[in-house]
Amino acid sequence: KAGVTQTPRYLIKTRGQQVTLSCSPISGHRSVSWYQQTPGQGLQFLFEYFSETQRNKGNFPGRFSGRQFSNSRSEMNVSTLELGDSALYLCASTYNPGLAEGNEQFFGPGTRLTVL
Amino acid sequence: GQNIDQPTEMTATEGAIVQINCTYQTSGFNGLFWYQQHAGEAPTFLSYNVLDGLEEKGRFSSFLSRSKGYSYLLLKELQMKDSASYLCAVRDQQAGTALIFGKGTTLSVSS
Predict the structure, then answer these.
(1) What is the pLDDT of residues A69-107, one digit of tens each?
(2) Rounded distance between C-alpha atoms, residue B65 and residue A89, angstroms
(3) In angstroms, what separates the C-alpha of A67 from chain B's closest C-alpha?
(4) Are A105 and A45 in contact, with CB atoms under 8 Å apart?
(5) Contact with chain B for residue A66, Cβ under 8 A
(6) Which of A45, A58, A85, B1 has the fewest CB atoms in 10 Å of its CB?
(7) What is the SS3 assignment for A83?
(8) pLDDT tens digit string along A16-50?
(9) How far apart are alpha carbons B101 and A41 in whole angstroms?
(10) Own/partner long-range contacts of B46-53 (Cβ < 8 Å, ≥24 apart)
């Protein structure tokens, strides 16, 4: 079974630009969560999508947004990029987040975003 | 709010046993996870505890005490490949399915 895939793996942008990152979950997984990882703050939750609906949102500004498609693939968008947005953006998929069993999150390799 | 604390760094030698502690504060605890992350790679799932007690998986074990807001990850028979960051994460009922991560413990295993 293929794992979680993310594209692109690396991205360099300049301040003020916008960026779109893509995530394809494990086949059959319907929940996709996004996290930002930085050396100073560690892994921080951005948002979660389930069945094309945003279920949870972390404490990030409105410049960060996302969506999920009917095939469970998800995209996140960051507009008006700032230097502080430089980070590793990780996507994670879950088979059935509502149950005690089988609710671990499987992470993709991440997209390394550098904002200059 | 939520708060998760774990040591920043630990060192150990091959063959030894190491215990990585994690303390947490949440308003509605709904499970604790441990992940391993090698440099430049994605976190990989190690263990899940939702009830008090010890969960054993090969060389790795994880313990949970909900009344104390405390967990530990025990790594036995350490190998060089165990050098990685170990992330403690808590699921909070108020946060739904989101995982709240600690900043991770970097473990260095030497020969």
Answers:
(1) 999 999 999 999 999 999 999 999 988 766 555 578 999
(2) 32
(3) 16
(4) no
(5) no
(6) B1
(7) helix
(8) 999 999 999 999 998 999 999 998 889 999 999 99
(9) 10
(10) B46/B73, B46/B86, B47/B73, B48/A103, B48/A104, B50/A100
